[in-house]
Amino acid sequence: MKSLTLLAPLLLCVTLLFSSLNVASDSAAEALAILKWKASLQSQNHSVLLSWNTSNDPNTKTSPCAWFGIHCNHADSVTKINLTGYGVKGTLHSFPFSSLPNLAELDLSINELYGIIPHNISQLSKLTYLDLSYNQFSGQIPPEISHLVHLQTLHLAGNQLNGSIPQELGQLKFLTDLAFLSGSIPSELGNMESLSEISLYHNNLSGLIPTSFGDLRHLTVARLYENQLSGPIPEEMGNLNSLVDLELCENQLNGSIPASLGSLSNLEILFLRDNLLSGSIPNEIGNLMKLSVLELDHNNLTGNLPQGICRGGSLEYFTANDNQLTGPIPQGLKNCTSLKRVYLERNRLRGNISEDLGVYPNLKFIELSDNDLYGEVSPNWGLCRSLQSLSIARNNLSGKIPAEIGNSRQIQRLDLSSNHLVGEIPKKISKLTSLLYLFLNGNQLSGSVPLELGLMSKLLHLDLSANQLSKSIPETIGNLSMSFYLNLSINRFSQRIPIQVGKLTTLVQLDLSHNMLSGEIPGEFQSLQSLETLNLSHNNLSGEIPSSLEKLRGLYTVDISYNELQGNKGLCGNARGLPPCTPFSKKGHNSNKTFLVVMFSLLSVSCLLISSIALLFAFKRKKDTDEERQSNARDEIFFSVTPLNGRKLYKEIIRATKDFEAQYCIGKGGYGNVYKAELSSGDVVAVKKFHPLHTGEMADQRQFLNEVRALVETRHRNIVKFYGFCSSAGHSFLVYKYLERGSFASVLSKNEESEKLDWNKRVNIVKGVVNALSYLHHDCSPPIVHRDITSNNILLDLEYEAHLSDFGTAKLLNPDSSNWSNIAGTYGYIAPELSYTMQVTEKCDVFSFGVLALELIVGAYPGEFLSNLSILTAESIPLNNVLDQSLSPPPPEVVNKLIFILKLAVSCLNINPKSRPTMHTVSQLVFDHI
Ligand SMILES: *[C@@H]1O[C@H](CO)[C@@H](O)[C@H](O)[C@H]1NC(C)=O
Ligand SMILES: *[C@@H]1O[C@H](CO)[C@@H](O)[C@H](O)[C@H]1NC(C)=O
Ligand SMILES: *[C@@H]1O[C@H](CO)[C@@H](O)[C@H](O)[C@H]1NC(C)=O
Ligand SMILES: *[C@@H]1O[C@H](CO)[C@@H](O)[C@H](O)[C@H]1NC(C)=O
Ligand SMILES: *[C@@H]1O[C@H](CO)[C@@H](O)[C@H](O)[C@H]1NC(C)=O
Ligand SMILES: *[C@@H]1O[C@H](CO)[C@@H](O)[C@H](O)[C@H]1NC(C)=O
């Protein structure tokens, strides 16, 4: 017994020695082969690959098993290589395909590998998992991949592969995930019986979707959007019992939607928008009990909407706008309380909406304009407490506007224009204190405008034109101090124009024409320094034309014709409709009548989406008419939300910066320079001047307009205040509030400044940026992706409060559409996927925010942590070691906040955009924890 117990460990030792010796040689061969590949890489000196080295001790054999990213089996043979996101740069030409007989998993995704995928890859005969996605591979997909009979996962997305998907891939039986960037769909694909996910979106795939698609019984996700696929949706797709997500949008699919799709009992997401689909929507869609997203817009669909569309009670996003749908809103939508967004505009829907619609507690946006809907505006809208936008313009609504609508306090946009509404505007509408846009024009509303209107102090755009409103214009109108656009024309307003109109100093367009207004034009008009268009025609105004109009230098068109006004012979001005202030005016105006006006709506910036279109139009228009005019007045676009009108602001800035002399330059960016300008009022502004525009090159102008659009619509305490913009004679610039402490980056770069930025202030900056981003992503409609969050774009005021600036690259996103763009943003802050996929989402901002949050803690750009995102964890960043040393250590309660921010930052830096939290979640977490 004793001898045996002694013998056992000995035996074990011998066995171990033997086996290790035995395997060491295999292992060494594998190591050498791998090192050969390493030697071919440009990134061989990258820290991660430093561990890939030969032992210095000649007695110990080199084994790769302890190397970074490499895993071995019990026999020390390599089974897995995972270098995802390690910055590996080079080719696969020297990859040891023939020397790694046990390699089962190869993950080289998110690197900088280029060249072709060698056909020798087929020598990795045990391979089950191959991920080469997000590199720069080019050429064809080698058909030899089909020899990898054990392959279950193949990711090739995010490369520059071309040619078609090799038919041979159809021989694979166990492929579960397929992702290519280009090619066409071979019908052999149907042989891949185990396939569970197909991601072939944003390619140049063309031709038909093969009917064999219907054989992929395990498919759960099919993303084929943004291709040029044509022909019908194969009926066989109805066999895909496991399908959860079917995305076929943005193709050229035609024919009708097959009824068989109604059999997809697990389907939650169905995107068919932007195709050429015709025929009616099959009633069988109502069988999809789990459906939560149904997007059918921009097709040529006809017939009625299916009754049972929300039978499962899960429908949240439903869009079918821009089709030719008829009939009523289906009964099934009446109690569909899950709805969040409904777009049905521009169809021919006909039905009584007071009966067909119910109460939707989660509904944020509903758009029913341009249909033939009738009935009354239901008091139920007041119970839709999440509602932000309600549009039922250009239908046949009748009856009164219910007072209850005032209960839906979140509404920002209410458009009931061009219907047959009667009665008075209810006083309670003034409870909509979030309202920015109110369109009630083109109805038969009567009575007086309620005094309470003045309570809607955020209103930017008010159109009550073409109604039968009477009595006087209420003095409270002067309280709408932020409004840009005010149209009360074509009504029966009488009495004098209230002098309080003079308080509307941001007004750009004022139309009071076609009323019965009497008395004089109030002298207070001279305060309307932002005014560009004024129409007072067709009233009973009397007295002299006030010379104050002459002082409105921003005025562009004036119409005061058809009144009883006394000519003011001396009156002149730059505006159309006023004679120019030169003694050689050619046209003799016959005193008191008709200043002919070409209504040239230069600016209606205040209107949500119309703004950019209007601006583009204005730009274009300007160009078209350049040759015809000697006067260059039309080449200029001025816009100001300051007490100064746009033109004055422009002149002041030119003066204050001595026509942009270098000494006033306080910053430089890719799109231009930033100047500091002190106005004669003493106010200091920051001026972002764009590089001169080249003729025929729209990019910069688009850039400019993007920024303007985003800025006009965004108002938030953590977003830099926008004052105006000017475009004239080659200069285009934006004017912002000047923030005394400059950018967060510049504060960090100066020691004494950076010391003043103590831990509490830094925590506060995080809060501010989170608030601003959450607002842009989740409270703006459509959401705004900033796309260039960096420490340079976070400006600090005297109290070190953060203000987000530079929407230069912001782009308004259409919710749920794919957004592709040229890379925007700043190197070092760009989300990794953006460099490969060009897909811009809110999650790109989330990533950049993560970088910024780390930067706040470290006190410098946190490059060392970002070089290796795939292994980044909060634990791998010891707080005590990384804290900005220029500050004294934080007190314990702040330490907890910093640890929280660190964790938050790391979660935002996840390589996978889907795994990053949304800014909404981040803001809730921040609210709860710091
Ligand atoms: C890596 O570093 C070694 C030694 O420092 C140097 O000789 C070699 O050229 C470097 N390789 C590359 C690709 O930079
Ligand atoms: C070689 O790799 C080991 C880890 O495997 C590492 O500790 C060592 O520093 C590396 N040697 C060189 C010269 O980089
Ligand atoms: C490779 O590593 C990354 C990050 O650690 C991980 O997400 C991924 O699943 C790994 N790949 C494989 C095939 O294990
Ligand atoms: C690939 O296989 C070819 C023969 O088919 C051979 O000539 C070549 O050396 C192999 N390359 C590698 C990297 O194994
Ligand atoms: C839409 O359908 C109508 C007939 O219903 C047809 O005349 C029209 O050409 C179609 N439009 C498109 C874009 O297919
Ligand atoms: C709506 O009502 C119908 C019948 O009244 C019912 O079958 C359906 O399940 C209801 N839907 C929801 C979402 O409650």
Automatic annotation (TrEMBL):
> What is the main EC category here?
transferase
Which branch of life, at top level?
A: Eukaryota
Which residue positions does the secretion signal occupy? 1-24
Per the record, membrane topology reads:
Single-pass type I membrane protein
Q: What is its EC number?
A: 2.7.11.1
- Where does the protein principally reside? membrane
Q: Which GO terms describe its cellular component?
A: plasma membrane
Residues involved in ATP binding: 689
Q: Which PROSITE patterns match?
A: LRR (PS51450), PROTEIN_KINASE_ATP (PS00107), PROTEIN_KINASE_DOM (PS50011), PROTEIN_KINASE_TYR (PS00109)
Q: Which reaction does it catalyse?
A: L-seryl-[protein] + ATP = O-phospho-L-seryl-[protein] + ADP + H(+); L-threonyl-[protein] + ATP = O-phospho-L-threonyl-[protein] + ADP + H(+)
**What subcellular compartments does it reside in?**
Cell membrane; Membrane
Task: Show the GO MF annotations.
Answer: ATP binding; protein serine/threonine kinase activity
Annotated ranges, domain Protein kinase: 660-930
The protein's UniProt keywords, in alphabetical order, are: ATP-binding, Glycoprotein, Kinase, Leucine-rich repeat, Membrane, Nucleotide-binding, Phosphoprotein, Receptor, Repeat, Serine/threonine-protein kinase, Signal, Transferase, Transmembrane, Transmembrane helix
Gene3D superfamilies per the UniProt record, alphabetical: Phosphorylase Kinase, domain 1, Ribonuclease Inhibitor, Transferase(Phosphotransferase) domain 1
**Which residues span the membrane?**
595-619
Kindly give the PANTHER family that the UniProt entry links to this protein: LEUCINE RICH REPEAT FAMILY PROTEIN, EXPRESSED, LRR RECEPTOR-LIKE KINASE FAMILY PROTEIN
- From the Swiss-Prot or TrEMBL record, give the protein name: non-specific serine/threonine protein kinase
